[in-house]
Amino acid sequence: MDSNILLLSLSLFVLYVAQLSWCYQSPQGVKINYREKEKEVLDQILGPSSYDARIRPSGENGTDSTEAPTVVRVNIYLRSISKIDDYKMEYSVQLTFREQWLDERLKYNDYDGRIKYLTLTEASRVWMPDLFFSNEKEGHFHNIIMPNVYIRIHPQGSVLYSIRISLTLSCPMNLKLYPLDRQSCSLKMASYGWTTDDLIFLWKEGDPVQVVKNLHLPRFTLEKFYTDYCNSKTNTGAYSCLKVDLLFKREFSYYLIQIYIPCCMLVIVSWVSFWLDQSAVPARVSLGVTTLLTMATQTSGK
């Protein structure tokens, strides 16, 4: 009798534990596939009937948000500087460029924090600011192995756009103090079509420009950089603009080794002709011509 009661109690306990674990799978008792939920959310917020990428988002000023300009916050991660050309007056950089703005049309249910953000790789799916680099000469995106770009949509409607790009930018230089000079090169970003009534660019608060550690430059060192605003006004309206000023100091040690020391040595060698006998004309001429040819070769850089 006691064994039957014990067996019945054990069976009821096992059944209770199974029922409890089944109930805790989800509030409805069914395990939710959150990857499927992400697909449903994307179809819901980016559907053709609910979202139009041609229309800019409303502003951030409460009741007047529909009339306020869209605010886009920008930050940059400077990965490398591959070339600073004195002759063409340009420099080449590789950077990660990021923009962040609020689009209330993209709000969605995060299922109690289970969906932190949604990731897209097609920028055409959402509205994008029409930013361009005003002092750019050449530029290209990176597509190895996949396009280096993503868009993150957060539950509150915040959109983060990140892309890796390489640019060649113009940099007017003042070479009066060469090779003891310092050069300031700018990176300017502005809106092409949206005026300040519709779109405003702001630097992200707190460290808007980051530089990779151990940045190595050819013949230069990056002393410091400044962030500023360069809003412009034309016949078609006022446009928002951001800029970064990079201050480069030329490395004198390079020119000391490559130019100053070789030239001094050649001058000292040319003095040897004063100690040669006056009658040793071939030796004096050969020494002088060799010195001149060496100086010419050193100057031409060949």
State the CATH topology of the largest domain. Answer: Acetylcholine Binding Protein, Chain: A
For the record, the count of structural domains works out to: 2
Q: Quote the average pLDDT.
A: 84
Helix content: 10-25%
Spans of at least 5 consecutive residues whose pLDDT stays below 50 are: none
Q: What's the story with the biggest beta sheet?
A: 8 strands, mixed
Can you tag this structure with a few keywords?
14 strands, Acetylcholine Binding Protein, Chain: A, 2 domains, alpha+beta, 302 residues, four-stranded antiparallel sheet, eight-stranded mixed sheet, Methane Monooxygenase Hydroxylase, Chain G, domain 1
Blueprint (SSEs and pairs):
Layout (H helix, E strand, L loop, with lengths): L1 H22 L10 H12 L24 E16 L4 E13 L15 E3 L10 E3 L2 E6 L7 E5 L4 E13 L11 E10 L7 E5 L5 E3 L8 E10 L2 E3 L2 E3 L1 E10 L1 H19 L10 H20 L2
Parallel strand pairs: 1-9, 1-10
Antiparallel strand pairs: 1-2, 2-7, 3-6, 4-8, 5-7, 6-7, 8-14, 11-14, 12-13
Helix pairs in contact: 3-4
Please tell me about this protein's structure.
The chain is α+β, with helices and mostly antiparallel strands. It folds into 2 domains: 70-250, Neurotransmitter-gated ion-channel ligand-binding domain (Acetylcholine Binding Protein, Chain: A), CATH 2.70.170.10; 254-301, Methane Monooxygenase Hydroxylase, Chain G, domain 1 (Up-down Bundle), CATH 1.20.58.390. It has 4 helices and 14 strands. The strands form 3 sheets. Strands 1, 2, 3, 5, 6, 7, 9 and 10 form an 8-stranded mixed beta sheet that branches. The chain has a 4-stranded antiparallel beta sheet with strand order 4-8-14-11, with no helix packed on it. Helix 3 (252-270) packs antiparallel against helix 4.
